[in-house]
Amino acid sequence: MLRRWLIAAASVAVLDLSSHAAEKTPAAWSAEYDQLVRSAGQDDEASRFHRFLGLHWSYLMESTPEAATYNGYKGVNDRWSDLSPESIARQKAELSRPRAVLRSIDSARLSADDRFWLELFDRGLRRDEAGLRFPAELMPLTQMNGVQQDVAQTLSIMPGGSVGDFEDMLRRLEKAPVLIRQNIELMRGGLARGISAPRITLRDVPQQVLNQVPEDPRKSPMFRRFAEIPPSIPESERMRLQAAASSVLTNAVYPAYRELHRFLVDEYVPKSRETIACTALPDGEAWYAHAVRRSTTTDLTPRQIHDIGQSEVKRIRSEMEAIMRKTGFAGSFPGFLEFLRTDKRFQFDTAAGLLAGYRDISKRIDGELPRLFGKLPRLPYGVMPIPSYAEKSQTTAYYQPGAWTFGRPGNFYANTYALETRPKWEMEALTLHEAVPGHHLQIALSQELEEVPEFQKYSETTVFVEGWALYAESLGAEIGLYQDPYSKFGQLTYEMWRAIRLVVDTGMHSLGWSRQQAIDFFKANAGKNEHDIVVEVDRYIVWPGQALAYKIGELKIQELRRKAEAALGPKFDLRAFHDAVLEKGALPLDVLEGRIERWIADRKAKA
């Protein structure tokens, strides 16, 4: 799973520091867009288009500073997004500005590459415009993410090599109370309209808030970066910064988080909805249909996806049973799953041992990557534990992208909570997915692409990003992994996991399934333990449609590979095929299919 920042709104605070990007007023931004529209017919169309792409990227990053930090965009690391109702309404209205510029550009006068980027940008803009009717900003907090974690997590990925970097962190801490209280008001507004996270999924969230505010502020996750100030910074400055951070936490941030905790316990959780389906929300049927289209980039209906999932579950189950017989296990399939969940041979005794196991697998895969790819990323990655304040409600693992401009590596975060639920047989598949050749390789390569617009370098088109990562799991056998039948069963378990998602996500959000029905279906068909299954099902409840992307994307990439192998025969080059899939960043599936079909035709012609 790719760790994403869920950012909603659009304006920033005024700063008088010359080292930071100067704030532009809404009127100033509008003037720049308007000037581009007025230049139609006067300036070269390619120049206008590229000025527009640069302007719009700057607007997005400076309007959503958390995303800017995440992507390595400099100059706004001391700010938060403005989540006031006025700012959110303005940002929604401001979607008309890029539309006006696009209408003014004569695409016939652009190069083929620029027309491609214009069409791709316009497609994303139309998707965002279609989503304006659904007030997702009124559900800013779930057990998976939200302001109860975002302050510490944002600080954790900020640059930290200079006094100025830590001054940025201090300014962000000083402004965090406004962010927290804006989130409270959004949730309160959601309650008034019958829009909230389901109550069952919020059970751990009040404790997540308390995890941020231990009695000693120097033990808070929000203080961690200040405890790690590098020795290159003079001791007097380190002491000053640490004292200031402790004071801000005690006097400003802690009171705001305690206010959030009271709100959750006394108001939000008791009044949150008891239903789980997205379709139970106002305009919910259309909301879920939009989520499905956005996640899969297809016109597949929930029922069609549900049926694909059932078919895949049946196919994978047959392969899993064959592996079970290969191990010599004499019992039933449910008995084998229970054996895999509970036998001590598959469990680590310590968190350090689990992390060392993942690091060993990662390095073994690294050495095999040139067999699969002609081009590899420069950015390194690490293996880290999921922070303890979030681990109980988090999934098994996730990937957090790095940022070359900040000198920040990518990180594969593994969950070390409840070690008995982290079996060894799942580790090879999980590493292939989260690190290489999955998320890290694809996302780092995308960030390093040349002659590709910024909006596409950092595209998180879910069906491509997660479809690629699931496809990457299947590459293990081609580089010498899955030699142990239990590890091969682990790979099938993870593929089954994604097939189950197609069934239970559509089941709960469109077809009337209960939460328990989803848990039972999951438990009957996969070797995942019950804790992981519950966490997963609750994830699908609060993130409707997202989980559909994995299998839908992987099936398309597998289909395209088979098509290329059949068309090119002995001339098929796996390294060249993978490079072709990845060379333009994360794409909608129909766009990817068109590009690979042209690639196949070109290879055949050259052969």
Give the gist of this structure.
By secondary structure, the chain is mainly alpha-helical.
Descriptive labels:
607 residues; 25 helices; 3 strands; mainly alpha; 59% helix; three-stranded mixed beta sheet; single chain
Describe the protein's topology.
Elements: H1 26-38, H2 45-63, H3 65-71, H4 85-93, H5 96-104, H6 112-130, H7 147-156, H8 163-192, H9 205-210, H10 224-227, H11 235-271, H12 284-296, H13 302-327, H14 333-342, H15 351-366, E1 381-385, E2 397-400, E3 410-414, H16 427-434, H17 439-447, H18 454-457, H19 462-474, H20 485-510, H21 515-525, H22 530-542, H23 549-568, H24 574-582, H25 589-606
Parallel strand pairs: 1-3
Antiparallel strand pairs: 2-3
Give a written overview of the molecule:
This protein has 607 residues and is mainly α. The chain has two domains: 26-284, no CATH class; 292-551, no CATH class. It has helices at residues 26-38, 45-63, 65-71, 85-93, 96-104, 112-130, 147-156, 163-192, 205-210, 224-227, 235-271, 284-296, 302-327, 333-342, 351-366, 427-434, 439-447, 454-457, 462-474, 485-510, 515-525, 530-542, 549-568, 574-582, 589-606; strands spanning 381-385, 397-400, 410-414. The model is unreliable at 5-19 (pLDDT under 50).
